[in-house]
Design a protein that fits this description.
By secondary structure, the protein is an alpha/beta fold. It has one domain: P-loop containing nucleotide triphosphate hydrolases (Rossmann fold, 3-Layer(aba) Sandwich). The strands form two sheets. It has a six-stranded mixed sheet, sandwiched between helices. The radius of gyration is 18 Å and the shape is globular. It binds adenosine-5'-diphosphate and magnesium ion. The site of magnesium ion (MG) has 2 residues, from helix 1.
């Protein structure tokens, strides 16, 4: 997809550096983003000129087949990987303008992550895991907020359990609560229900969607599952590293239909 000068997500400033607000309503986004892995004959263009913005207070799903560049996009948005060209921003901050220390601080305080593998520390309790990103920064966090998150994810009576004493779904709830603990500007989730059965996955998705509607959080979730994507407010479709289309208020049937059209 080439960048559309009429699109509201396109900033007027240069891509790459600077700190001007890009788009007041956007929690994060990328502009003309390309990512190339390898070189020469082994070159893989994982992202190809992608421009997309993610609005505050919404739950967006990034949907596409395996290898379409979903994880690459999420990692570049979250400052876990860098673009080959183009710009990624969180709020009014271009990630490329930050040094390592500032990027680490931004990831710790303004971004939350949920991965397919829950990535909990086995020796810590549920509550200690949830508080860990704050503790690591010598930060107590907002106690009332963390209590709200813990009770909203339904872990109030599991605070002192270690991961091995929790079900897979409960462990992923701990991971989601951990991502929300700092009250980040945006949460990125990469296939968060990929290791869960559909019932348990549905519970996690319900919670994520209530974190957006009830706790006013912003979530961007990568998935290849139309049912998972249907929990979102908006679906962005990618294929071959390019943005294909998008859909508001999706249902799993409409998503499936769109996927079939994309295959043609
Ligand atoms: P998705 O998450 O949609 O399955 P990815 O973003 O993981 O897709 O990958 C997009 C493309 O980039 C794939 O062709 C993948 O093989 C390639 N790729 C991803 N990460 C790397 C890497 N670290 N080195 C080389 N190629 C990579
Ligand atoms: Mg992936």
């Amino acid at each position: 997809m080439t960048s559309d000068p009429g699109a509201p997500v396109t900033p007027s400033g240069p891509t790459g550096h600077g700190d001007a607000p890009v788009h007041a309503a956007a929690a994060a986004g990328v502009v003309d983003a390309s990512k190339v892995y390898g070189s020469g004959g082994a070159e893989v263009r994982a992202l190809d000129e992608v421009t997309v913005a993610f609005d505050r207070g919404r739950f967006t799903a990034i949907m596409g087949p395996s290898g379409s560049g979903k994880s690459t996009l999420l990692h570049c948005l979250a400052g876990l990987d860098t673009l080959t060209s183009g710009a990624a921003y969180v709020g009014d901050t271009y990630l490329a303008s930050l040094d390592d220390a500032a990027l680490t601080e931004l990831r710790r305080t303004r971004i939350g992550f949920v991965f397919q593998a829950f990535n909990l520390i086995p020796t810590l309790t549920a509550e200690e895991n949830i508080r860990l990103p704050l503790t690591l920064g010598g930060d107590e966090g907002d106690r009332e907020w963390i209590d709200t998150v813990i009770s909203t994810v339904g872990l109030a009576d599991r605070r002192d359990h270690r991961p091995s004493e929790l079900s897979g779904g409960q462990q992923q709830r701990v991971a989601v609560a951990r991502a929300l603990a700092s009250r980040p500007q945006i949460v990125f989730a990469d296939e968060p229900t990929g290791n869960l059965d559909s019932t348990t996955g549905g519970e996690i998705l319900e919670f994520m969607s209530s974190a957006v509607s009830d706790l006013d959080q912003t979530i961007v979730m990568v998935t290849h599952d139309p049912v998972a994507a249907s929990f979102a407010d908006r679906v962005v479709f990618v294929a071959d590293g390019r943005l294909q289309s998008e859909m508001d208020d999706p249902t799993s049937d409409r998503i499936l239909e769109r996927m079939k059209q994309m295959d043609r």
